[in-house]
What does this fold into?
Amino acid sequence: MASECPDRAHAVAFTLNGETVRAHVPARMHLGDLLRQSFGLTGVHLGCEHGVCGACTILVDGRAVRSCLMLGVQADGATVETVEGLTESGRIRDLQDAFHVRNALQCGYCTPGMLVTAAELLDDADAAASREAIRAAIAGNYCRCTGYHAIVDAIASTAEARRQGRPNAGREAAE
Amino acid sequence: MKAPDFAYARPASLDAALALLAEHGEDAVPLAGGQSLVTALNMRLSAPGLLVDLNAIPELTGVSEAGGAVRIGAMTRHRDVGTAAIVRERLPLLAAALPHIAHPAIRNRGTIGGSVALADPATEWPACCLAAGASIVVRGPGAERRVPADDFFQGLYTTALEPGEIVTAIEFPVPGADAVWGFEELSRRHGDYALVGLAATGRRLAGGLSDLRLAFFGVADRPVLARAAAAALEAGDLAGAQAALAGELDPPDDPTTRAATRLHLARVILGRVAAKMRGGSAQEGGPDGV
Ligand SMILES: Cc1cc2nc3c(=O)[nH]c(=O)nc-3n(C[C@H](O)[C@H](O)[C@H](O)COP(=O)(O)OP(=O)(O)OC[C@H]3O[C@@H](n4cnc5c(N)ncnc54)[C@H](O)[C@@H]3O)c2cc1C
Ligand code: FES
Ligand code: FES
It folds into this structure.
């Protein structure tokens, strides 16, 4: 547990991409910086550091959050997953394949945040059923390459394949 | 940018949090969802000495119903407010407002208490509180007090909250069987702060609408109850209600949206909401319907 008395650095322990990790973190450091600097998880991209661009989006206790708007010390006791963890577990493999097939990857800066936002959305395939719902969900992730159309295609086709019980459709098309 | 240096504490009870705020005075601020506060820290718009994190205080979360009121704990996340079964059933106005609040990742973390305490004039929850006649439950070093939303929002980022006080919950009266509501918001892009929005409640009687509360947001330094417009609508005069808004709202003039445009848009959404509350189709928006 983080110390209760005001103190400028705190010992934290949390589950990161399936493993228990520990760190000593200054109170002022946001979680995005902690993940990048202490754990080398550079898939967590930082753009604006004020919650607008979405590039730093990760999952905390299963929900998408902006890692730039959560303090590292607040991760104590939580379950944190970054795009690296989602990739290794294979949980969004179909989505990643669909991004590839649909050419939804351009410079790739916004991609980790897009994938994490879509991962949460796709947990409820019905919620991802319409292009409007997908557009509304990813409106909070800025893409400077303006690849939204292809990104919406990739998320929509993944949702459709999951609904039909064909999660490998993107992979087959990619091969 | 990076946040300035500060200390951090995560008390496990409300009393401990209040004690920390009392001990450190103006140097300490509560940290709720952080979706506005950490932004301000990262941009160095704020430099508190101590953040008192409210996230480990169980008594501040949850939605419950008792004695004719729905009580929503201050630390309930936006998403959990809008998706709670009690809210969907009893307070559909709040469920309708939810998708307009920012984006999923921000809704997952931001809290209703933080939004109410911050009192940004362009945001949804304060206007919903005003429309629904909610009370803001506040604890300080002294006894708990309940402040009606009408008195709580006092100006730009200014509320009835005293230094050292914490919003603990929001209490909404349970609407009666004849209650109706309406919610509309126009923004540049889905999830952006409102250019203009309207949260409304009332009762639908055989003869028309009564007890209307029309809470506009994005059009003044705080959410505003349009009383003259409500009276005109109760008398069945939509055009009169739309005209009355000019005397009741004081929209900001900014480089991208002129005050006159916001006022026009306020009339448009009043038409839509009035049509919905009268039970007609939302398309009957009146002369301004776009
Ligand atoms: C990109 C972006 C877009 C956004 N769009 C919208 C939007 O469209 N609509 C909208 O409503 N909001 C929007 N927000 C703001 C978001 O909803 C915030 O979560 C909310 O305004 C503040 O709630 P919080 O719980 O995050 O509070 P914090 O950021 O933790 O705190 C905000 C302020 O309130 C004080 N405070 C917090 N809780 C309490 C309490 N219980 N008692 C006393 N004081 C307290 C804090 O000390 C601080 O001064 C947006 C934010 C971002 C980053
Ligand atoms: S870096 Fe976190 S949202 Fe932009
Ligand atoms: S792919 Fe370049 S920013 Fe989105």
